[in-house]
Design goal:
single chain; globular; 6% strand; mainly alpha; two-stranded antiparallel sheet
Length: 137
């Protein structure tokens, strides 16, 4: 379940969410910052001197090892994770009533850029709903 050699772009967000759910978003971003774009082997146990412990902290590293013992995690590139997080925040602000103009000023993107983000996120949301409906049948 945890080993995914070549994840598709849509599953990258799932992997990041799953890891963030275990070790927290800040530690997850630190992990992706250090090993993003590569496969990371997580041993069954991690001591304080392990590189993962240095990168994300000992407690978070222990949680990671408990959840993913002896697994190889395919981590997305940091830039992709950052853009996905930004896009999710833009989409949530838009759903909460922010205008495209306000979002373009706040996020430093053009209005067509914001429109593209919103279209992408709406498409992602529609596909997720469709997949959920298909799974419920």
């Amino acid at each position: 379940m945890h080993d995914q050699p070549n994840p598709e772009p849509d599953t990258l967000q799932k992997i990041v969410k799953e890891i963030a759910g275990v070790i927290g978003l800040p530690a997850c971003l630190d992990l992706v910052s250090r090993w993003g774009g590569r496969d990371l082997y997580v041993p069954a146990s991690i001591d304080r001197m392990h590189p993962i412990a240095f990168a994300i902290g000992f407690e978070a590293a222990q949680k990671l090892a408990t959840e993913y013992p002896c697994c190889t995690l395919s981590l997305p590139i940091e830039r992709n994770v950052t853009i996905d997080l930004r896009n999710a925040l833009i989409y949530q602000e838009w759903k909460d009533g922010a205008s495209v103009l306000r979002l373009s000023h706040r996020w430093g993107l053009t209005r067509p850029g914001i429109d593209a983000v919103l279209a992408k996120m709406q498409d992602r949301e529609a596909r997720a709903a469709s997949n959920q409906a298909a799974a419920a049948r």
